[in-house]
Amino acid sequence: MKTNHRLSGFTFGEILGLTLLLISIVGVVLVIVAGTMKKERQSVCLSTLSRINAAKTIFAHENGLTNGAKVAASAIYGERGYFLRPSCPSKGTYDIKPIGVYPTCSCPWHIPKEITQ
Ligand SMILES: [Zn+2]
User: Which end of the chain is more exposed for a tag (fewer CB within 10 A), N or C?
Assistant: First the structure.
């Protein structure tokens, strides 16, 4: 009597190949998702920097301040400011800078075009 010793319909090589293919596909998807999430966080941060700069401009106009005047962060955002205290999605910290200087984020990849040009 002849017996079949194979446990499944696939050989070890086929299972190994399929496993490596699935790992490769998952790796590519993770790289794409991570890149997209990084760009999204950067976009949110740059938008916040733009809002901080706009609020500084309004504050300077309302208070007769000129370029180089220092502004407290509490005057720009918070309870007495123009909007709630912002937070960088990558846990960076904001430096609002004096009037006339664009605000910055401590994350090295959150640099507005206004500064790089
Ligand atoms: Zn940031």
Answer: N
Q: State the alpha helices, DSSP H only, in the chain.
A: 12-63, 73-76, 113-116
| Ligand 1 centroid distance, CA of 62 (Å) | 27
> Does residue 17 belong to any structural domain of this protein?
no
Q: What's the pLDDT at 112?
A: 81
Between the CA of 59 and the centroid of ligand 1 the distance, in Å, is 22
Is the pLDDT reported for residue 26 higher than 70? yes
Number of structural domains the chain divides into: 1
Q: Are 55 and 83 in contact (CB under 8 A)?
A: yes
pTM for the complete prediction? 0.76
Does residue 11 lie in a domain region?
no
Distance of CA 104 from the midpoint of ligand 1 (Å): 8
